Amino acid sequence: MKDKGWFSDNINKNRRIYAIVFTALTAMLLGLLVYYHNMGNRTFVVKGTQEGTESSDIHIQYERSKEWSEHGTPGFDKGMEYDFSLSDSGSGDIYEWQAEIIFTSDYVIDSSWNGTFEKADHKLIVRPDEQTEKVAAGETKTFGLVMISLDEQSVGEYRLYYKEDFTVTDMPVFWVLIAAILITLAVFITDEWNHRRYSRLRERQEEIQAILLESFTTFANIIDAKDPYTQGHSLRVAEYARLIAGKMGYSEAEQERVYWIGMLHDIGKIGITDAILQKPGQLDNTEYSTIQTHVDIGGLILKDFKALTDIADGAQYHHERWDGKGYSKHLEGKDIPEIARIICIADSFDAMTSPRVYRKALPVDFAKEELTKCAGTQFDPDIVPVMLELIDEGVVPVEIEV
Ligand SMILES: [Fe+2]
């Protein structure tokens, strides 16, 4: 059973991917927080004139709203009122700001409002008071002064120094990162949960497999114990049948099914008397006919074993021949179930290459010749080459410990 994760079947690989993604996203989030924290402490400078600024959302506008003649201070005879407005069209609030406004002519400050005003030569330095200390995003704050000017007056360039209060939660990227982190965690938890569930299922499946293997092996040993000369026969036939099925393109699960079926192909021998099965000499016709009934007995024993498809067919038809001269139903060609055609070849090969009561084991080359010779008469001519290939590859025969 595959433990299918989101990324791969390997939970440890998935865990590594989650760790990397989670660490990367968290690092990006921390980076973002640090960046915004630093931005909050940074002092920005913007230069501008009445026409505006080059590239900032923050700017100061002004107008000379009143003008009159003065005679109080010698030389300074022009009274003027300047109204300024500081606008923040950006996304962050402005605080700790200071404006430096350059006037073209000398002047004295008569009065001012909404800030503290300090004069340095022609330069006017404005700092906010309580009212103007913070300019929220989208807001405009006003301040102004009355001055007595030496000469015809106008405002040149200004500089504005300020800090901007960025709220990280206003940034879409912040929420995108939070969402990505939460999604990663959710996927990770789901994967872990699935992994645990699959692990429990796999353990249970392995237990069942072990019970099955031990039960079938026990059955196979019971069958083979009936005839001391066929020790390990059922296990070898099962293995050969599985190997043939594998070469024929059966899936792993199907190969396993073929293996189980191969193990019990001779189960009908349980119903044959030991006197015949273990007879050292040649069998007479009656005894031979009795032995042949093991296929029908096997078919009968396994007929209700529905959980393993075709298991009864394996026992019932493994002595049928391709030419129809086999037993007991005399099926022919592809009318014989494929599982039985496979087991027939596996069974015959093992019968030839194992010692018998009446003879020694025959050489593998002899068995190969027999298989080749009988392809199309006794054996399925399409399956024989598969078995020959396995023999040539050295995969067959196998040694099985009993
Ligand atoms: Fe048999």
Number of discrete helical segments: 11
Mean residue pLDDT: 90
How large a portion of the residues is in β-strands, by DSSP E? 15-25%
Ligands bound to this protein structure = fe (ii) ion
Task: Find the CATH topology of the largest domain.
Answer: Hypothetical protein af1432
CATH domain class of the largest domain: Mainly Alpha
What is the string of helix and strand elements? HEEEEEEEEEEEHHHHHHHHHH
Largest sheet: 7 strands, antiparallel
What gross morphology would you assign? rod-shaped
Using the 3D structure, state the CATH architecture of the largest domain. Answer: Orthogonal Bundle
Structural class by helix and strand composition: alpha+beta
- What is the CA-CA span between the terminal residues? 29 Å
Number of strands: 11
List keywords for this structure.
alpha+beta; Immunoglobulin-like; 3 domains; 11 strands; 7-stranded antiparallel β-sheet; single chain; binds fe (ii) ion
